[in-house]
Design a protein that fits this description.
By secondary structure, this protein is mainly α. The protein contains 13 helices and no strands.
């Protein structure tokens, strides 16, 4: 067994447990860039390992009641067949170096979209907190939020997300949750995560079956991913209550951006310029954005025991 791959998968699992996203967006480029695994093999092995690991987190959300089952049904109506179709679409590109290059380009695009989605998610949450503070958003919801399911756009989100996941293994946690936030703003964050995680189980399973049949699944790659990923995700979930999630998400967005540029084979000098801007310019712009909505530029550190009251948490996150 490749223990270096086990350790790397353990690290990715911690990030997934902390943020609820980033599995395929980190695991697949890690396999391609650092372990020199062919893109199609990386996608196939990552999806098969995800099909084993995702049901664990889904069961937790189902037990806590943080899953909108009608939404899950409509999402799966689009995502499950589209996930399998994404594998067939990949095969239509050809074989050998041709299909590997197509997978690499699709993966890079999905990584950029995931990084942008994280930024949009953070900005949307800040605006929602500002509206709740000012009273323009109305009273904060208590109890389970009620939403009117919109079948057609929900199926479309599932279909588009399924195609991307089937081709690249990226998007079941990062891209689709952003689309759900835009379509159903009334859902609370924990129900968004729970709904997306549960719908991703049949989606990833469908794509994994497609890759087992038509892809390039390699057992010696998949087993270390499972061995390292399961305990890493478990540990990350426990650490999530102790570490600042915003800092972890910013680090994840930076890693996604760097992986996308590397996967696009961008010139090293231009890559350094873009990453330097993300590292030194983006924080200043975010501080200005916070000030614009009446928040301090830097998030104040809380002293003493942390309150679990949701009304107070809204003010401090």
């Amino acid at each position: 067994m490749d223990w270096a791959l086990v350790i790397a998968s353990f690290g990715v699992g911690i990030v997934v447990g902390l943020t609820g996203m980033g599995g395929g967006a980190l695991m697949t480029p890690m396999l391609v860039l650092f372990f020199n695994i062919a893109p199609l093999t990386a996608v196939s092995s990552d999806l098969v390992s995800s099909a084993v690991m995702k049901p664990l987190g889904s069961w937790v959300h189902l037990r806590r009641g943080t899953v909108n089952l009608p939404l899950v049904g409509w999402l799966c109506a689009g995502s499950v067949p589209a996930g399998f179709a994404g594998v067939l679409l990949t095969r239509s590109f050809g074989t050998g170096s041709q299909v590997q290059h197509a997978i690499q380009i699709a993966l890079a695009c999905a990584l950029l979209a995931a990084a942008l989605g994280l930024a949009v998610r953070a900005a949307t949450r800040l605006i929602e907190r500002a509206r709740a503070r000012d009273g323009s958003a109305g009273p904060l919801p208590t109890g389970r939020p009620q939403v009117r399911v919109r079948p057609l756009p929900t199926i479309l989100i599932g279909a588009v997300g399924g195609i991307v996941v089937g081709m690249t293994s990226v998007g079941s946690g990062s891209l689709m949750i952003i689309a759900l936030m835009a379509l159903y703003p009334g859902l609370r964050a924990n129900e968004l995560v729970g709904t997306d995680l549960v719908q991703s189980v049949p989606l990833v399973l469908s794509a994994a079956i497609g890759h087992l049949i038509f892809g390039n699944f390699v057992m010696t790659v998949t087993v270390p991913l499972i061995v390292g990923g399961i305990p890493g995700t478990y540990l990350g979930a426990h650490l999530s209550s102790r570490l600042p999630g915003g800092m972890v998400r910013r680090a994840l967005a930076f890693v996604l951006l760097a992986s996308a540029l590397k996967t696009f084979e961008v010139d090293a000098e231009l890559t350094l310029i873009v990453l330097g801007a993300a590292l030194f310019v983006a924080p200043g712009l975010w501080m200005l954005f916070r000030r614009h909505y009446g928040f301090p530029a830097l998030v104040p550190r809380l002293r003493g025991p942390v309150s679990r009251d949701p009304q107070r948490e809204v003010c401090h996150r």
